Amino acid sequence: MPNELAGRLEPIVAQAVTAAGFDLDSFEVQQAGRRQLVKVVVDGDDGVGLDEVAEISRAVSAALDENEHVLASAYTLEVTSPGLDRPLARPRHWRRAKFRLVKVTPKEGAEFIGRVGHSTEESARLLVDGKLRDVAYAHVAKAVVEIEFKQPPVEDLKLLEADASGMIDAAETGAKEEPK
C-alpha cells in the first residue's frame, strides 16, 4: 500500500516542490503506526536553507491537504535536504558540486580525488593533481563530496573557471578523457 500511495502522491508533491523553485530529490511514504510518514528530500542549485525547507514544507503540506482524498489518513510530513554524504548520482548533483572536492570510485581503476569544474549531462571536468580530466558518469561506480575545512586554492578555481568559459584549450592543460 505505501508504494502505491507514494506513486499517487509523488506528482502532487513534485509539483509543490517545483513551484517553490526546487527539485524533488527523493520521495517516500512509510507506515508509522496509524499515520503515514511522508519523507520529502529537496535540493536546489544553491542548496537549501532552513527558511527554504520551512517554505517548501508549508507548500507540500498545503498540497497534501488539498488532496487529502488521496492520502486518506493522518500523516507526518518530513522535509529535508540531502546530506553532504549523498552520492553524486545525477548530472545535476555534479553541477551543484561545482568547485567542490569529490572522491571518485571508477568502475575500473583506482579511486581519485578531484575538484569539479564544468559538467554536462554525460560527464564532468575535474581537476586532478593539477591536470584537467574528463570523467564520464557512466564510468563512475560512486562519487561523493569530500568535506573541506579550508578554502580551495584560488589558482584551482581560476583554472576551472577559465576552462568552463572556453578561455583555455584542453590540450594546454593536459586534459584527458576517461577510457570508454
UniProtKB/TrEMBL annotation:
Residues 88-149 form the Ribosome maturation factor RimP C-terminal domain. The keyword Cytoplasm applies. InterPro entries: Ribosome_maturation_RimP, RimP_C, RimP_N, RimP_N_sf. Pfam families: DUF150_C, RimP_N. Residues 12-85 form the Ribosome maturation factor RimP N-terminal domain. PANTHER family: RIBOSOME MATURATION FACTOR RIMP (PTHR33867:SF1). HAMAP family: RimP (MF_01077). This is Ribosome maturation factor RimP.
